[in-house]
């Protein structure tokens, strides 16, 4: 048997040219044709005229079906491609195709009393896959004789093998103890917002360990927030396999997303490019509908609706620069990242460092921002860190997966013992002072008494601790930061946490002043950004270069 690859390094050229995103021919053509033969005969009841899948399916989905079923080695009983990741825009028939794929798998299954399942994050999403599967059976007399449908428990039973297919909603049913041969996960982006979703999916797919013929397929649109949790990690893995960074021939990534140059130029707003992430454009996808949705969203400033439309209908990943009420500095944030910027780097190259601190309640993040001025180029360089109390994890369950992501990246610390956060923050600031680089430490005076005490206890001079005016008085600071970013004289560390905070920041006009506050941004966290603004306030005063002590501080 020849080698095969699931990498597709020329995907950008292919997707623009409308070519297949399947990187290899079916490994076993006979098995592929058998699967296609069944899939094509299924009836799509929700389409006018009740055509078969074979009559309405475009080449992209037939190629995918062939790749899945053509990876099965009938001689050994082993499937050689065991994970599939499909990212595709809304209304391209994803859930209906899911139903067709798993029905095909059920009909081809040989294992007695085998179990298969479609796992969805909610009952509504579960029904999106359940109804097409149920209706395809009822529309075919032969299938109705072969398969028993139990609507009340969303279960289909093969009368010959006694194998079952369940459609399970994660918010109402448990997946513990499942031994599914085939698992199809619908709308993975929503699982990315669920705490412990990774454990749930591990439980749901665990049956494959003893069933080598099995496979799992993740299907999803983009998230209407920056990717997080299990969705973020699985999406990144799929991209790395596709790009050839990771070699994993058992994992098949099929990602309908825009090439980087189109994203950078916002070419996704050009209707002539919509086919790139909508292979069913003109069939199940109506361009007039997308056009109207974008027009409506553009006339609803502040709602976040435009980013949702772009994510769902064009698979545009939400970054920092899509909301109409965004901070204007967000337009340049992703372009001013430098991977080399770390705390160590900042201490090595800076001639002076200002510090910003933002300390909220127990349901906020304690945030620290260090802003250095490069000794030679005079560019501003920023590095941030934040701390979260367990209280945040309880009160803000919607952002827990995201906070765990930041913890893994080392940018956020989840505090285990009260006071550890203040102690660690003070130790970093004291290290900057000991290195001879500290100009001043700025903070909102509200709620930082314990921090100031800790700083003084670590020999940070009291005269270096200053209060920074908040609210509308920070308008000049906000504009200074965005202007510096636009000029390319303000660089920052490559930190997803900060990208998230910048994307969360919402602006309001107070007279002639531009204001960003936690109240305006709602439950979304911007504490590290506010700490950075405190540091910008001080650095904008052009402090003199310090007499640096040339010993390297280690934290």
Automatic annotation (TrEMBL):
InterPro entries: TerL_ATPase, TerL_nuclease, Terminase_largesu-like. Residues 65-225 form the Terminase large subunit-like ATPase domain. Residues 265-539 form the Terminase large subunit-like endonuclease domain. Signal peptide: none annotated. PANTHER family: PROTEIN YMFN, PTHR41287. This is Terminase large subunit. It comes from Candidimonas humi.
